[in-house]
Amino acid sequence: MPTELSTHGWAQPERQARWAEAISDTYFPLSLEFAAEQPFDGHLQRWSTPTTPLSLSRLRSSQLGYSRNKAHIGQDSDAFYLVTVPSRSEVHFEQDGHQLSCRPGGFIVERGDAPYRFHYRADNDLWVLKLPERALKANLLGHRRYTRHCFDASQGLGRIFVEQLDLCARHFDASPAAARHLLLEQASATLLLALQQDERVLGSEGSNLSTLHLTRVERYVLQNLGDPDLSPQAIANACGLSLRYLHKLFSITPYTLGEWVRQQRLEAVHQQLRDPQCHQAIGELAFRWGFTDQAQFTRAFRQRYGCTAREVRAVRTH
């Protein structure tokens, strides 16, 4: 069953404080701004599992504002992002000097590691996917650009992503406990694809030439991840860049090119190991995703996830 709470049955004088506490427990520390002299109603459901830091929630409430400041951020042990999908009324979001509005039929990305303000002026019904910052950093070069746009949830991958959120909530309890994380991870994977393929990010004012090149490199690598000959020189040639410039591009990211490619390959293997429908041997999976040295793969996997690939696969059967 999802974690669930409602203001129904709470006395009006205590609703604001109790709701503020529940919101901070579900997402991260936030300040809430309630409408003056108006009764407040709220209902919150949350789906999560210990095997993944991802979580999904559905938040329904009266008019409300949320803000996050440096003091809030200082309380965090890990950085998270929120992906918010309004389905009833328009939401307004301000972060890093950018302001945007998002109506039902769209979704936005909120960085938890920087101050922001988020509000809606009428009753609303929101899907919210919470995911660790490292998931975006590892998969989206220049990931901070994505907080500047309202993304389309009415068609294509954006619509599939939102539909998967609904499917996740409806089928979560009926799924085996060991496989529930897959519902959340599939939604997260579709989200990443939707963000990667949104052309507006490439043309935005916040994008410079380096970001354009990084995005092109990112797409090429992800399309050719299983190629064992995916070398820096091959990537540079395919993207029309010099090898020196390619390595320079990655100096503005948290990773070197080699580290980032290895991380993508490890994540691809990790996801398949947790898929109950995948029965390939671990060595075959590693080779499929570009690892030609089994010992090197084993060391890298343990270093990345703190356990062996065999142990990850064993978890799904319990």
Automatic annotation (TrEMBL):
Location of this chain's protein in the cell: Cytoplasm
Domain of life: Bacteria
Keyword Transcription: yes
Pfam families on file: AraC_binding_2, HTH_18
Keyword presence, Iron-sulfur: no
SUPFAM superfamilies for this protein: Homeodomain-like
InterPro entries listed in its UniProt record: AraC-bd_2 (IPR035418), AraC_XylS_family_regulators (IPR050204), Homeodomain-like_sf (IPR009057), HTH_AraC (IPR018060), HTH_AraC-typ_CS (IPR018062)
Full protein name: Helix-turn-helix domain-containing protein
Source organism: Pseudomonas capeferrum
